[in-house]
Amino acid sequence: MASMLPPVMLTLPEAQEEFHDLLRKLRDPHNQRKLIDWIKYNWREDDEESPEGILRSIATDIRLHLPIEAVLPSEKIIVPTSGENSDCDPKYTRHVDSFLYDNELLHELTAKGVIESHYCVQCGSTKTKSLTFISHSASRAQIAYMYNVLLPPLDDDKVLLDVGSRLGPILYGAYLYTNVGKIYGIEINGELCRMQREIVMKYGFQDRIEIIDSSIEKRTDLLATADIIVLNNVFEFFMEPNEQIKMWKLIYERVKKKALLVTCPALDVTMESLPDNGIDMDKWVQELDVYNMDAPDMPTDDPELKMIHLYEVINPGKTD
């Protein structure tokens, strides 16, 4: 019976030399670059020092300082009157932050009764309906999808801006998953800015992340210079429709050509809920396909992930 040979174990220099040999065999520099990108996107570590592990740790830290709904008294929530979230009756809607409470933890807390999940349709009866859960943050799964699947590689000469960064998960994800050189989070709530800065300092992110306590109206320079702008549920629950239109017009006019916009929900969904907004979507942006369809263990058909869309600005807008 033939004996099984033990696997060949390489030293680091030997592995590096074999890798260089493999790249040389590809010859085409474009394919060499694609292989390097493929390795970067598809290599996964699952420990406390991995991006996933660090984001879990950050979420644990933040949960200690916030109520479950992760909405501060200093924040004013405005229930949408149009669009797909106009049915969010405050009596039957609960704000549960998806970054802080993933589906597994949410299920555990609802099972224990810590978070209610149903309401009584008729008092004294057994008729119940499910409550609606709303989050104002991207989940950790959405963050991983955004940087590992949706976007192309972000190099150190690029600038990323998160408008309305709140707890900062988009910023921390950009730091951990990409090489993007500068990461700005602009947030109008001073308490949230302080919390973000504490996380940035604790985890040593201050070399690339900067938190700006201001409104985007006062810092249009950031819109004009950013290469990637993230707009995650940014205005809908915090502004009246006329103010939302004002903000979107500002973005429409100030972002530069070829800038990438990451939005949740899709831009057309947002614009449909804001009629007479003066924005010509067809001339302004084109939607881009997912960059890395080969990412492992990443269910790109997941409805939660499909809510996130990527656009390239093809013609900076001008409104009347």
TrEMBL record:
Gene Ontology MF: a single term: methyltransferase activity
InterPro entries listed in its UniProt record: Arsenite_MeTrfase-like, SAM-dependent_MTases_sf
Highest taxon of source: Eukaryota
Protein's recorded name: Protein hook
Organism the protein comes from: Frankliniella fusca
